[in-house]
# Entry
Amino acid sequence: MKFLSQLIDIVYPPRCHICSRFLSADERPPSSYYLCNNCLAGLTPITHPICTICGHPFLTSIGQDHLCENCLRKKPWYDFLRSPYLYSGPLMESIQRFKYNSETHLISSLGELLSNFAREWIPNPKDFLIIPVPLHKCRLRDRGFNQSLLLARVLSSDLGTPLDYLSLIRKRNTRAQTGLKKEERKKNVKDAFSIIYPLIIKNKKIILVDDVFTTGYTLNECSRTLKKSGATTIICLTLARTLVD
# Structure
């Protein structure tokens, strides 16, 4: 198998999934996720201090983790939310290509970035149930895939955590959140989700997966729906997040 892999690399040299540059020997998987050193260096990890609930990074690099103003004013329905990277640079480019240009081959790199973070951050991940943020059937038909489900599948495979992509559905075909103002986003997803298999959700600990955190209204509304159906703990996990409050 090692010889076959080496032969394939000679015939089809692996390229960086973001910039398409040929990968050197030390840049090839499993060490690089099919990303070259330059593109990996362009990722911006989220560093402490952060909000202990929503994971919002604070501007200062000094001090301990603490609650942000938004979570102090009104605690979200989810218990914790974390993202490994800021939505910027090559990661933003690759997520946009993945979602809007249907470059689904990027999932092998993007999914592994997320699963490696989850493996370090979530204790006993096999005790959870992974659920992706759903798309409405009309949006799914137009796009051809649900980016959150593809990420969730990689996460489930890597962590050995069961995946459920049927219980939580989007019952209203909401407008795309991109381009909407903060309050418009909140109203847009209000009562947009429902549970069709509540017995599967009851008394479960959930990892709720999405690609990018912006205002968090979609994740919060999904979490409200899941908690109303009996979920005990909800951890939200996104690959990237913006700094929009």
About this structure: The beta strands are 80-82, 85-86, 129-132, 168-170, 193-195, 205-213, 233-241. The chain is about 35% helix and 15% strand.
